[in-house]
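Anyone? Bumping this.
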Amino acid sequence: MSDGTTQPRQVWSSKLGFIFAASGSAIGLGNIVFFGANAYKYGAGAFYLPYLIALIFIGVPFMMMEIGLGVRFNRGLPEALHHIAGRKGEFFGWWGILNATVIATYYIAILGWVVGMLVGAFGPLWKSSQSLPAFGMPEGVLPNPFAYFFDMLSRPYAMIFVALMWLINIMVVWRGTKTIEKAVKVCVPLMWVFMIILIIRGLTLPSGPQGLRLLFTPNWDIMNNPDVWKGAFAQIFFSLSLGFGIMTAYASYLPKNSDCSANAMMVSFMNCSFEFLAGVAIFTILFSLSIVPKASTLAMTFFVLPSGIARFPVGVTTFGVMFFVLLLLAGISSSVSLVEALATAIIDKYRISRARTLLYIGGIGTLISLLFALPFVVDSGLDDNGTLGLTLLDLSDHWAFGYGLLFMGFFESIFIGWILGSGKLRESINANTKIKLGPWFDFIIRFFGPLAVLSVIIASIVGECKDGLYGTSMATGWAPLAIVVFTTWLVFTTGGAFVLSRERKEKEVVE
Amino acid sequence: MRTFLLLMLCLNLSYASQITLSDEFPRVHQMTDITVLDQKGVPVEGAIIGLTYRPNSMVERSVTLEEQTDSLGTISWIPDDAGLCSITASNARKPDSLLASTDVSVRFESFSPQGILVFLVAFVVLFGGTTLSIIMLFRP
């Protein structure tokens, strides 16, 4: 990690360090709860077929492409794409990084709320109900953990947790690969241990093992529904953190002779194996406690699963605390990678010191994250999102996460497949791998991958056109806010990428 | 994360009445009794029972039991699908007004060979892929 032109770029101290960091980045909050909710929605067992196909034909090749790009150029995404396609390439590189930055700001706000829930899990969260003064609701109107969550959101102290999470993130990336490796070597193994404990708990609940039958028994009738395939491809793309520029940034700290194929396979399969275990844990709990998976990752994380844990026959506090610690570990190992992707891109381009870069990122990032934690109540009936902060988060997530990653994945494959030439990348990967890539890799990067991602994007846009701009039909009349957030996202990512890709330092990047 | 418009779906609305089942985990194709009681514990006669198998999924299927609850507030039900099921009770005179709602897990009859196959394929592909890449990565 160069702090200027004089210091050599850092490298991961071991293969394990990179694997822990990259898999820790891929395994996040979404893996723990989103997969279970998605699998249930798309017909449970039948979902595995499109899911595995998406993993093998999109997930692994795209992961190879992103890691191969980082190793080949030893630079973050914008600089790597600049090498391939000049300013146009760099523009899309920055566009991806800026989308990842938007995601980082609200992801860290969510982690702040996880800390708040963790504090509550030592006692108050498990009370049957509590009052919500900011929403004008006396005790007994709303059950916990719903009430606890919204009460926390409506109080300024939640903002302190958000600022604390930024501080932790900056500390973890402070010395680059050195500090990241130290953190992930603790977080990642603990995540696996906690997940296994959660599975054991799920399987030992009354009728818990029946949840396995619910998860794996297929309903093949649903396979001819294109939405299931769209859901599987989107799940793999989001789950593996593709299109963020993270894997390219992390891989840029690998030695030139690294085995990109094996590393990509390792990260992809490890991520999905964790998701497999998470599915088992979640389904056994859902079945035993007769909980219908509902709504969103946030709802599953903060209300649905905690309400299930509250009904455990024994060990409510222990398992509640463990659940939120698991979320925190998974979240931190992912959020640091988002921060690092931006830091790497800035350091690569402007050659300024890491400390200065991180102080800028931490300062501005904290201010933006605090917007997502604004405790003003805008929807006292909880018909929509309750507070202004959560409303902003929801709207930003829709654009940055729902579209940003997919567009980036599409353009990345176009630049590498058609401009650099997937054959060239394949050759450089094959030079140092035991798993040689054949021409099938070119076919996927040039044709199948972009078309599959494009079809998901088009399906999403068609849905958008049918339903109107996301958020404009909110019950509380926040249509102008939806338009403001959409415009801000567009200007920040597109305008920001335009400005950053126009500016060139005097001395070009040395290959 | 899609929080919008969906929070209310997650709230366990409190109803004046409640639904109880003779078996906490009914088994598919086996009879069980559904009982509807009002807030004082008095049986509700003439309630209409609606069932939604696999609610909130793409294989969701809704049916309404033909008969209504008897004088004991009870009606027999033979679940024809395993998995999660939402049960609602509504007033026969005002079918739109919900009296009570609950979710139950209907147990499977036996292991599905296809389910075991899906489990094995997913397990072998995912953990096999992880193992293979570990071997490849760390082999000298």
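Late reply, but here is one note on the structure posted above: The first helix of chain B runs from residue 7 to 10.
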